[in-house]
Specification:
single chain; alpha/beta; Rossmann fold; 5-stranded parallel beta sheet; 40% helix; 18% strand; nucleotide-binding; RapZ-like_N; GTP-binding; ATP-binding; RNase adapter RapZ
């Protein structure tokens, strides 16, 4: 039996993750009292129940009883029930925004500011995060992307790493991405924009890729960039960072930045981490000129 405990910050997407797991055939129970975990585990592991995949939501709604989670998990182990912990997280600014959008009250901020409740919650559940098998930072994830991450862990055969790398192409004329940790300017590369036949195409097209990479600088840049990432990522991990957004920019975010982003993604996805790719501004020129 696969026994998954879903926990994390309120507003980080635990309910969504449980719904996704339910879609994948898990028997899901949300907000189970911590004291009932061993009993539930015994019932679920009984062959007569015919349940082979279980997911249980455990979070701050347990109140002070949450502090007893580790002892209940020890009891599960004594019963021979192996478990995995999935932890959903997001930065404070995103959590505050989500609460304000839904007009919900934070469980620990009945009469205080939302920020105060979030700070208390982080402190109270930090021990769960420290022992989690999988951590998903949903700060920049859409619902479909969260679904893909959960599927990757619990359904697919692809390996999953708690460190999430996003390689993001963008156009400088539309602004530098606010969540970018590293930004690289590739406007030094040959620009297909000035070739009339190439202008309508994007960095996803082979002819654009060949044009951008034609003088060899693109490939050399990718080699150096890959080497830099190999150096930086382990050091970010040592500092406790769980996500990295790499911005690759050109003028309009359509040709050069897309080409280099595709190339860097192809190289980084071989690493033992979760690697995502996004082309933020690839269609903006077309939309702007169509107005």
């Amino acid at each position: 039996m696969r026994f998954v405990i879903v926990s994390g910050m309120s507003g980080a997407g635990k309910s969504t993750a449980l719904k996704v797991l339910e879609d994948f055939g898990f028997f899901c129970v949300d907000n189970l009292p911590v004291a009932l975990l061993p009993n539930f585990g015994e019932i679920a592991s009984d062959r007569q129940t015919e349940v082979d995949k279980v997911a249980v939501g455990v979070d701050i709604r347990n109140g002070e009883q949450l502090s007893k989670l580790n002892s209940q998990l020890d009891t599960l182990c004594e019963l021979g029930i192996e478990y995995e912990i999935l932890f959903l997280d997001a930065d404070d600014e995103t959590l505050v925004k989500r609460y304000k959008e839904t007009r919900r009250t934070h469980p620990l901020a009945k009469e205080d500011r939302i920020e105060t409740g979030i700070a208390r919650e982080r402190e109270m559940i930090s021990f769960i995060r420290d022992s989690a098998d999988y951590i998903i930072d949903t700060t920049t994830l859409l619902t479909r992307e969260l679904r893909q991450e959960v599927e990757k862990i619990f359904v697919g055969t692809e390996s999953y790493g708690n460190f999430i790398i996003t390689v993001l192409s963008f156009g400088f004329k539309y602004g530098i991405p606010s969540d970018a940790d590293l930004v690289f300017d590739v406007r030094f590369l040959p620009n297909p924009y000035y070739e009339q036949a190439l202008r309508p195409l994007t960095g996803n097209d082979r002819s654009i890729q060949e044009y951008v990479m034609k003088n060899g600088d693109g490939r050399r840049f990718l080699d150096k960039l890959e080497d830099l990432m190999q150096f930086l990522i382990p050091r970010y991990l040592d500092e406790g960072k769980n996500s990295l957004v790499i911005g690759i920019g050109c003028t309009g975010g359509k040709h050069r930045s897309v080409t280099i982003t595709n190339g860097l993604y192809a190289r980084l996805k071989k690493l033992p981490y979760t690697v995502r790719m996004e082309h933020r501004d690839i269609e903006k020129d077309a939309r702007t000129k169509g107005k």
